[in-house]
């Protein structure tokens, strides 16, 4: 599918998806009076007053009643988002065109994963790295805080969005547990299959113990069916304690080594030497353009700098890459172009810190405008001040003035002293992009669940977990093939600790108010308990088997983990389709 197909898909979805209106639930006791523009079917009044009716019931009714059912049932209202996918599929498309609607939604779902991946990799993570550099954080602290946040941003934002609505909380639980099982079995087993290695013992035991504690805490929360303010803070506090433990273990390890004079122990992750770093950096595709650079640098005009900065294609790399890379790049170009226009990126590794004067001045206008137009699906940006002037107009006016002042007082050659502020602006703008994409992702998954009569939990443990973990899978396996399996194996367990503790803790904490300090997390089926048990069992298996093998991990260990995941997936799907029936006490 080329760029024209991508743009047409987004255009079709914009036309067929009904813009979300008031997503709030009406106060108790207020009758539902949907304006259906026609005669109400017999018995429909009683149906509309049944506030506990599940949205899944829509597929059990006559196709002529689908649209009225979705519009009148509060359970069919999607929280947040720019498009109402349920009304789009049941009101815009004719019943016989349902397969076409599902196909378009599936393609849009895949593209949302691309948006999440591109935003996190090329805009969110670099700005986090620049912030940690400006704050002068050590590599260990930055790795378990900012780097973990960057790598887990799609998972965390998806969990926060899903927890915002009790009807989609199962998505968050399924994604958190499902991604945990997937990463600790398929990804970890794949690393052992690609390159057998000796695991870093102390970091492995530390991470597995912390992760088992997090899983046990989540199991207790699910058992009681609620999470209190203290428990939500406990999640975040446990992660802070984990960061403290990493820093303390690193300090103790350095003291034992005599500040690096002793030879590395068997528990240390493999790190590239200076020669390897120089060799790998020399093979970087960007260095092929060195011979094309002029010997005497010339002063470029602002228009030329802006044009070059907004080009998402490297033509030298384009000619060397295979056709499938080019096809995927064509799909990413529209996303990258919009992100380049709205998200500044500060790169500490470059001499000019990636300072592009005309583009950065444009970011002073576009980034705040993006934030107000994506926050609460544009509700704040469209708000009329005193009923006269919209908020987005005020932001545009102030941003334009600041952009002009910055352009006049700076030069193209040297970044200003306050250039680090753009890293924080880029972090905020990319976070808003990820949050907006995650909101659409959760809503479209819930819509697919209604169409196919699937629970949110099974959608979370499959589509959402696979989509958010695919980037980690490729990066970890690539790292293992390049000769760093220890580092990749440590990333498997270290990253998901952040996703579970911060995703659940922050997601529930943001839903609490002064009058409601409890978030209900009632498991909707036996599948939740199978998920929790499978994740706990996989961690116990690795916790016992890895030390038993003297931390020598080979192909047998990898095969066992992958077979375990396949068996778990079969049990989960059989449970979802009611083949396995057990009563939960």
From TrEMBL:
One of its GO terms (biological process) is intracellular calcium ion homeostasis. One of its GO terms (molecular function) is calcium:sodium antiporter activity. It catalyses: Ca(2+)(in) + 3 Na(+)(out) = Ca(2+)(out) + 3 Na(+)(in). Residues 262-290 are annotated as: Disordered. Residues 1-20 form the signal peptide. The chain crosses the membrane at residues 97-120, 141-163, 169-196, 208-226, 232-252, 327-346, 387-408, 420-438, 444-466, 487-506, 526-544, 556-575. Keywords: Antiport, Calcium, Calcium transport, Glycoprotein, Ion transport, Lithium, Membrane, Mitochondrion, Mitochondrion inner membrane, Sensory transduction, Signal, Sodium, Sodium transport, Transmembrane, Transmembrane helix, Transport. GO terms for cellular component: mitochondrial inner membrane. Residues 106-247, 423-573 form the Sodium/calcium exchanger membrane region domain. Its main location: mitochondrion. InterPro entries: CaCA_antiporter, NaCa_Exmemb, NCX_ion-bd_dom_sf. Coiled coil: none annotated. It is found in: Mitochondrion inner membrane. It is a multi-pass membrane protein. Belongs to the Ca(2+):cation antiporter (CaCA) (TC 2.A.19) family. SLC24A subfamily. This is Mitochondrial sodium/calcium exchanger protein. It comes from Accipiter nisus.
